[in-house]
Amino acid sequence: MYDIIIVGAGPAGMTAALYAKRAGKSVLLIEKEMIGGQITYSPCVENYPFVKKISGMELADNLFEQINELGAEIEFDKVNSIEINGNVKKVICDSVEFEAKAVIISGGAKHKKLGLDREDDLIGSGVSYCAVCDGAFFKDKNAAVVGGGNTALQDALYLSDICKKVYLIHRRDAFRGDIDLVNKIRERENIEIVTPAKIVAFLGDKQLSGVELDSGRRILLDGLFVAVGQAPENEQFRDVMELDEGGYAASGEDCRTKTEGVFVAGDCRQKNVRQLATAVADGASAATHACEYLDSLE
Ligand SMILES: Cc1cc2nc3c(=O)[nH]c(=O)nc-3n(C[C@H](O)[C@H](O)[C@H](O)COP(=O)(O)OP(=O)(O)OC[C@H]3O[C@@H](n4cnc5c(N)ncnc54)[C@H](O)[C@@H]3O)c2cc1C
Fold this sequence. Notes:
Blueprint: E1 2-7, H1 11-22, E2 27-31, H2 56-70, E3 73-76, E4 79-85, E5 88-93, E6 97-105, E7 109-111, H3 119-122, E8 127-128, H4 131-134, E9 142-146, H5 150-160, E10 165-169, H6 179-187, E11 191-194, E12 199-203, E13 210-213, E14 218-220, E15 223-226, E16 230-232, E17 262-264, H7 276-297
Parallel strand pairs: 1-2, 1-6, 2-3, 6-17, 8-15, 9-10, 9-15, 10-11
Antiparallel strand pairs: 4-5, 5-6, 7-16, 12-13, 13-14
Helix pairs in contact: 1-2, 1-7, 5-6
The structure holds flavin-adenine dinucleotide.
């Protein structure tokens, strides 16, 4: 049995592993996709304190190396549920089960979809949710980004270096993202801002060929990047933690949940700011409180 099992090896989960290992606890991290979480999609992080400029992938690699050297174990699998049997927590994955005295849930958040007909069919055939992953497929082609927050603005800037033309489509006149990014966008000659506008349909049969807007305008496109927000994947943990209407886990800064010995950290937690700095802060807090909990069992 492990002292602590951590669900998700993003910045929050890996930071929790770092703190727990340094406190002498045995730790298993379970990750269903890729070490590093969302930040691996960012080519350039400039707002993480102490580091002027670094790629998200390098940042994640550094942290992984740090916890690896401390002896944190990692398993690639998807956690589907957690069962509580007194002080023992059974963590049930797709292919295997583990036991721990404490669990930290740090599953982060996922991209939201537009909810239009054929959206799923067109994923990988012109529709993408990750400009950094798929932008290179649209070199010298026409692409659009839909959304009004920082991710949409960053995606539009990133794609404008690769694509011939980039349309930035947003349903409101004003963007929610940073004014600095908006100003940079306005300076780019190959970005056309299309606001207020709502995409009502995808054009093209098996391959996206464009979008139709609520104004009736049709824009011919090779690629569409959807950046309309995120939602946590907490549903399978509803029994052990309280979720708000957005699906985020209710918890204070101590990262405790309604279940003794179960903690929550990072973007999947109810909070105002979802960033690297807040995710790693949560990881540190969750692990510290989980260690306190373990010590109280002795
Ligand atoms: C394109 C992009 C650019 C960004 N740029 C910046 C930036 O410049 N600066 C900044 O501060 N922040 C940035 N962010 C935000 C930052 O990446 C997130 O706030 C941070 O990654 C949150 O960390 P986390 O560990 O809480 O969650 P995540 O990074 O989402 O990691 C969660 C991990 O848990 C795994 N997981 C989920 N459910 C399960 C399960 N059931 N079983 C096993 N594993 C599971 C996921 O696969 C994932 O690896 C950016 C985000 C994106 C998408």
